[in-house]
Write the structure tokens for this entry.
Amino acid sequence: MCSKAKTQKVWLALSLMVALGWPQLVYASEGAAVAPRWPMLAAGGLLVMAGMALMTLRRAWFELSSRAKIWRVVGVTLAGIGFYALTFGVTEPPPGGERVGWVTSYSEAQKLAKAQNRPIMLDFTADWCLACGEMEREVFEHPQVRQRLEDEFVTLKIDYEGGDAETIAAIERFEVSGLPRIAFESPDGEFLRGPSFEGKLGVEEFNERLDAAIEGRDAGSQGWLSDALQERGLWAVFILVFGAGVLSSFAPCVYPLIPITIGVFGARQAATRREAFLLSLTYVSGIVVTYSVLGVMAASLGTVFGGFLQHPGVQLGIALLFVALGLGTLGAWDMRLPGGLQTRLSQAGGAGFGGAFVMGLVAGAIAAPCIGPVVAGILVYVAQQGDMLLGWSLLSIFALGLGLLFLVLGTFSGLIQKLPRAGGWMEGSKAVFSAVFFGLALFYARLALPALVTQTERVWWALASGLMG
């Protein structure tokens, strides 16, 4: 009877999601249709609920029978795939739509530009650049933009990591210091600096850049940080960057980690609110150190440093870390530090504070690829300025914004100690968090495993096609 009730709740929740998502069923476009987001989100939500319904949430792993352990593993797996689908559906552009026809040779593009009397639009990209893919799917392939690119421009795509002499020369000529980088060249070979830009723009802003490239004039904007600095001053930039950090803490692969990390570094078990605050502050200090170092390095190197954080190897390493955390949370291995290491940390000033700082260092690196476009935008600006003090201050302020939610919740989480320390709800939360970790592992692994993205998009399109009839 209980199982039947759970099944009814799952299907009721799915029906509500479908009903709420129905207004997005038709994509108002010219040309090929683009899949709506709601089928992917609905499927992800259903998998999460089905997985949780299969788990025995109120008992510890060692208390489960063999059969119950199998069902928990199945449930965690389904819920993990569901969390991945939800994160993918929220952050990735939907599949579908017509593609832009690209030229891949700079010399060939120059010949076409002269013959057709059209300017060249150069798109510098790389496999690891998430924002590049988003820019192409959300802007270049928008029906209005795509039509303009086909009729008015020669479109050239250059692989930033090509390594050949022509690519290296183009990177230097068009002053590429960050990705995405869009540059324009007139039919007679003049570099049009005015309309060229780095970072992401919306459809309307990008159309203005196209107009400026056609007319050969300055588009009047050099990026969101540069614009804010020129219009409102340095303090406005600091406030803007701090706000970007706060908003980034709500990213799909950052926010779910907050209660987990707060519990692990000991803020929940702190004897006083002051101790909880100091532990949380130590954790946030670790995040600040990570990002301040990135800022100084970006300013000193003056190159595409933010791209390193989205490199497939880095992403795969983070994915493996989440797999290990998921297995540990599930109960497959003991997540406690070795006794000798705990003793050394205690002698150095306390395992809690040392662990909190190290966790902050790691958390900053883990969060960076997830919030890559924001971090990359700041790093690109810092790299252009070449000012190490500015790089340190901007990235430190961003990290403070990113850690604000951790600081507040960690400080006041000491109140949780008044609740019962044991109970089935704790075991249930471990199973759910384990599923979150596995979902994040899949999400981070997608850059290192292009086939995973391809198959996910196929499933997304199949869901949309089936539900849309």
